[in-house]
Amino acid sequence: GVVMTRLTDGVVATTYQGIEEEATRAGYSVLLSSPPDDPEAQRAAIELLVGRQVDGLLLSGLHRPGKEFIASLRVGDVPMMTLTRHADAGLPFVGGDDVRGGALAARHLIDRGYTDLAVIAGPAHATTATDRLAGFRSETAAAGIELPDHRIVPSSFEVRGGTEAGRILLDAPDRPRAIFAVSDTIAVGVLGVARDLGLRIPEDLALVGYNDIPIAAQLPVPLTTIHSPALEIGQTAVRGLLDLTAGRDVESRRLPVELVVRGTT
Questions:
Q1: What is the pLDDT of residue 89?
Q2: Strands (E), the chain
Q3: CA–CA distance from 196 to each of 168, 186, 189 (Å)?
Q4: What domains does the chain contain, in order, with CATH numbers?
């Protein structure tokens, strides 16, 4: 059983592809539910799949903090793992190394000479977003660079979130010189705002995204981003869940991410 929010997002869909491929190889079929990104909708989806007598559950969209939510579920002894978001839920987890990814983004901007920085931080309930922000802040602090609160703007993960947060940061006299967006879709929204304001990329504004979606390399100014192994996350999660169903211990894993430098920096 798989509960996966935001399946229309290309990164999420790629992760699901990895789940489907690995489950098929192992002789399993997958029952998928894609509820809204809301805890109660996820609860209903989880309990529905348990009622279908699944052998195990993969949960990708949990909200943080997730321990109380997990404890409140009526799932019996069905093994569970989280993927992509760990949600501080106390379950085995597979995802990208988002803290390191945020740190890589910050270090790249600092190495390029940027010190006037801002972050479009995604939603506070998603550990993908909060971990990336934490890594970025840790690296800027180590470099002695201040990142004031007004330079950290929450958003959704969608393009619209990027445009709304981008306007807050860029349509102002003290706009930042460089922005880290915690997803590529957010970064696309920022690029639209920069275009509307007549800002040149990267001469007036440098930009780093996250995930390395296929369109990132094909934008008018190709997007510098952090590559996250979405397909491998799905595959690794299935292998871990099958180990759990067999009674074996499973350790959480954060898969490597890497910086991909392109035209926006």
A1: 86
A2: 2-3, 32-33, 57-59, 80-83, 93-96, 117-120, 152-153, 178-181, 206-208, 225-227, 253-255, 258-260
A3: 13, 16, 11
A4: 2-96+229-255 (3.40.50.2300), 98-227 (3.40.50.2300)
